[in-house]
Write a sequence for this structure.
């Protein structure tokens, strides 16, 4: 985008950006946040930041997506830092009581527990785990999206899996 | 089942995107309107000349002014001729000790002639 871009062109570009990426971004945001409302706010904040700095968004769909993902994760990190103290003081509770036996209940408890445990991971690590385990992205693709090296992604995956596996194994 | 498989199964099974509908169409439309409006206002604000552009414009204006000013005819640095005669027409125009006179008449009709001594040094 050129520096002398007129307002309609900037708005049109942001509109196209929104149309192309909002669903994908919402999926990631939902998996990085506790509730659908939080995810919605996260996506809106991401696109508002894009609207504020359209000139800094690189051209091309993959670059645009990576830029948006990084902005989204940075917003997550801001929120994560704000709630860090509360998170440390709040013990991780199992999702429900294990008084009822049965495979379905155990599965539900394991799933809920693991997703609560995800809240404790730093956003970038959580994003690496989500992108790899749920979206099936390759490590180089995750590295491109997050703007880090493949080694860093492997390290985050390894640490994230260890943390989560430890919780499952309790 | 190993830990990694258990982890993956728990993540996939608890994935909120698997059981939620996702963004509603109304939410998407409202969000899009807000984002586009923000982009329009932001672009309008930044469409006007920024400080660097303003500084460049001022510099160019100054340079153009100096160039045009240099091309104009020079004004005579000597004082304009007045009704006072300031020279002795009889005196030679060349020579180191040029004598100058100032002649004028008073309202009463007296004619006064001042002769300036070029070697006068108070």
């Amino acid at each position: 985008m050129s520096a002398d871009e007129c307002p309609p062109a900037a708005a049109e570009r942001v509109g196209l950006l929104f149309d192309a990426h909002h669903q994908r971004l919402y999926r990631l945001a939902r998996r990085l946040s506790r509730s659908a409302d939080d995810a919605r706010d996260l996506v809106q904040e991401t696109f508002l930041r894009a609207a504020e700095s359209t000139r800094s968004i690189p051209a091309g769909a993959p670059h645009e997506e990576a830029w948006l993902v990084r902005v989204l994760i940075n917003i997550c990190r801001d929120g994560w830092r704000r709630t860090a103290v509360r998170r440390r003081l709040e013990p991780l509770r199992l999702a429900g009581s294990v008084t009822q036996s049965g495979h379905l209940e155990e599965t539900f408890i394991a799933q809920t527990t693991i997703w609560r445990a995800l809240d404790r991971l730093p956003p970038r690590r959580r994003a690496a785990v989500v992108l790899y385990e749920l979206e099936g992205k390759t490590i180089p693709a995750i590295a491109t999206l997050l703007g880090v090296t493949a080694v860093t992604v492997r390290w985050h995956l390894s640490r994230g899996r260890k943390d989560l596996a430890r919780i499952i194994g309790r | 089942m190993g830990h990694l498989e258990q982890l993956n199964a728990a993540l996939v099974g608890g994935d909120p995107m698997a059981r939620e509908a996702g963004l509603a169409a109304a939410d998407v439309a409202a969000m899009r309107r807000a984002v586009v409006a923000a982009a329009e206002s932001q672009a309008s604000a930044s469409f006007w000349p920024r400080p660097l552009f303003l500084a460049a414009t001022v510099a160019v204006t100054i340079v153009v002014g100096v160039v045009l000013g240099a091309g104009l005819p020079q004004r005579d640095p000597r004082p304009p001729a007045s009704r006072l005669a300031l020279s002795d027409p009889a005196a030679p125009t060349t020579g180191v000790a040029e004598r100058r006179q100032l002649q004028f008449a008073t309202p009463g009709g007296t004619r006064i002639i001042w002769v300036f001594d070029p070697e006068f040094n108070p």
The mean pLDDT of chain B is 78. The CA atoms of residues 63 and 69 of chain B lie 10 Å apart. Residues 82-122 of chain B form one domain.
